C-alpha cells in the first residue's frame, strides 16, 4: 500500500496512524558490514516515512513515536529514545538515524532485546498506544549471550516482528531462534537472503500495512506555505559525487538543466568550511560518456565559487554512454587520489553517488562497478528522467534500493520545488 501525499487545495494532508510506539532493533556488528548497516538505517527511515505524523510531544496521546536500538557486543548498545523531546518530526528522526555509526563489534542480540525493552519500552510506553518491535539480525550471535532474554519483548502487548537475513537461517536451530524472538508467531517472521530486500518497495509496503493498517487522512484548513523546511546536511558529514550522463540521448538543453540542478543542490546544502571539516557536505561532479570519456568537472570540494565557475565552463560531451566505466573512474579518481592511492573522500563521511541518467548505457564493466561501489560503502541515489528508462540498470546502480530511484517525466522537473525538496531531504 503505497502512501501518496494527497492535497486539499494547495496544502498537504496529514496521514495519521493513531498512537504508535515502534522500536527498531538493528544489528551493528562486524558481521553485518558497513553497507548492510546503512541499508538497515535506510529501511528504518523508509518505513517511518510511511507512518504519517510523528508526535510533536513525546507525552502526546496521538501520533507515532519511534525509537531505535543498534547493537553489537556487550555494553555497546546505542539508542534513539522513544521519549526524546528532540525527535518531533520526520526530519529530526531521519537526522538522528543517519548519525548512528556502525559499531563493528561482536553480536549480543539477545541482550539487545532486553536493553530495548527495559530502556525504551518499559520506561516510556504510552497507555493507549499500540507497541511494535522490529528486530533485524543476520543470526550470528555470541554464545556467551544469555538465552533467557530470547523472549524479553513478548510481554505487555508488544507485537514483535523478527527479520532474519542471510544463510544462517537455513539451519533449523537458528530458524527456531528467530521464531522465538517473534514470540512464537510464525506470521511475524520474515526471512531474507540479502539486506537489499529490506528496502525493496514490496517489503516497505508490507511493513506499512502491518504497522498502520487503517490510516486516517486529515487535511488542514490552513493557508498555503510557500516554502518547505529542508534538511541541509547540517552537523553530518556527507561527500556527494554526482555522475552526470553526457550521452547524445540527453540533448544539450537537458544537459544544461541537469548541471543547473547540481549547482542548485550545492547552494541548498550546508557545505563544509574546509576540506578538513568533519561536518557538512562536499560535492564532486563527473560527466561521463563512452568507455574512455570521463571529465572531472570538479573534485570533492566545499568551495561554492569553484563549483559555480567550473559549471559555467562545462562542455557537453554529446557521446555514447558507459556507466560502469564511469563508476570505476569515479572510485579511482574522486573517492581515492590517483596520484598516491590515498582516500580523497573523508573517512568519517557518508559517501553518496548521485546518478543523473535514463539508464540506457553499455553494460561493459557494470558488475565490476557495482562491486567497487559496495567495497567503498557507497550510498547510491538515482535521478531517472524521461519516459524511456532502463529500470534494470537503474535498479542495479541504486544497489537494489527502489526508494533511492527518483523518477520524473522530464528534466524540467529538476527545478520544480516538490521534486527538488524531496531530493534534498533524501540526500541529507
UniProtKB/TrEMBL annotation:
One annotated GO molecular function is: extracellular matrix structural constituent conferring tensile strength
The Swiss-Prot or TrEMBL record describes its family as follows:
Belongs to the type VI collagen family.
Q: Keywords assigned by UniProt?
A: Collagen, Signal
What the protein does? Collagen VI acts as a cell-binding protein.
Q: Which residues form the VWFA domain?
A: 21-207, 239-423
Transmembrane ranges?
A: none
State the source organism's domain of life: Eukaryota
What organism is listed for this UniProt entry? Varanus komodoensis (Komodo dragon)
One CC-aspect GO term:
collagen trimer
Looking up CDD domains in the UniProt record yields: vWFA
Query: Does the entry feature the keyword Ribosomal protein, yes or no?
Result: no
- Please give the name of this protein: Collagen type VI alpha 2 chain
